[in-house]
Amino acid sequence: MNTDRIVAATAALLATPLLLSGCTASPVGDFRSQVAPAVIAADSNIRDTQLSFSTGPAGVGFWLRIYVDDASDDAVARSLVAALDAAYSASPSLPTSIQLDVARAPKPDDVELALGDIPISAAAEAAGLSSYRLNNSIELGSADLEQRYGPWGVEG
User: Signal peptide position in this chain (predicted)?
Assistant: First the structure.
């Protein structure tokens, strides 16, 4: 009799995560489906994107690569600002961070996760983002994003 109870309890414990997993949407899937199209639509120089995510108890952070046609400093500066604004606005919840780099379009079939191939120092300075530059990328944490764009989810 006790063996039957143990088997039933064990089966219930093992099945619970599987049953509950269907009750919640994937936060990464929500970010992917909302952020990528918004970023591409934000600036005519942006042709495509690549997103990579990190998740944890604090939420979802992401690395965003934008693929651009015009690699001039002025065009990249406009694309950086447009991409960050769109990514932040389109996020389904406050991102823990956004890291952004830039590469030349078209997007390759096999994306290398190294930093983008377009130097962004001058563009970051022109865009007012030089204090967020990390190597050849821009990185803003949630506090930086809220300071720059205002509280997440509140229309400005």
Answer: 1-25
Q: What's the pLDDT tens digit per position in 119-154?
A: 999 999 999 999 999 999 999 999 999 999 888 777
Using alpha carbons, select from 26, 24, 31 the residue that is nearest to residue 95: 31
Specify whether the backbone of 56 is left (phi greater than 0), alpha (psi in -120 to 50) or beta.
beta
Strand, helix or coil for residue 60: strand
- Distance CA(68)–CA(40), nearest Å, equals 10
What is the CATH number for 130? 3.30.300
Q: Are 100 and 64 in contact (CB under 8 A)?
A: yes
Answer yes or no: is 91 within a domain: yes
* Highest mean pLDDT of the ranges 7-11, 109-113, 137-141: 137-141
| Separation of alpha carbons 36 and 56, rounded Å | 21
Domain with 140, as residue range(s), is 26-149
State how far the Cα of 14 lies from the Cα of 156, in Å rounded to an integer. 46
